[in-house]
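User: Can you help me understand a structure? I only have the sequence.
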Amino acid sequence: MRNTYITLLKPSRKTYGIELKPLTLIYWSRVCFGIVAALISAVGNLASPELFKSLLQGVSMAIIVYILSYYFLKSQFIAKVEKPSKVLWTGIGAYFLTWIVTWTLLFTMLKPPG
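Assistant: Let's start by predicting it. Here is the structure, written out as tokens:
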């Protein structure tokens, strides 16, 4: 008699859906980090009454979150990409575009003019 329990407990290597390449994961991680940076920037700017100061704080926060995301993604993907500079530059446009759009929407909703 064959023991079927052993075959059921073996881990399967089946993937369901699309298996993403490391650069694709880095790209979409940067998009998510852009949304997080926009949330932090918008909430952090609630106390600032001046528009220029709010803009400066928001941009500074976006740059800080990007640098932190670089070090986090570098630790995760440095061995999986062909050049280390790919971790730095992949998704930079998507990050800042996502940040500026999300931050503008949140800033407008949380701090209406007037």
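Now, to help you interpret it: The mean pLDDT is 85. The radius of gyration is 21 Å. Let me know which part you'd like to focus on.
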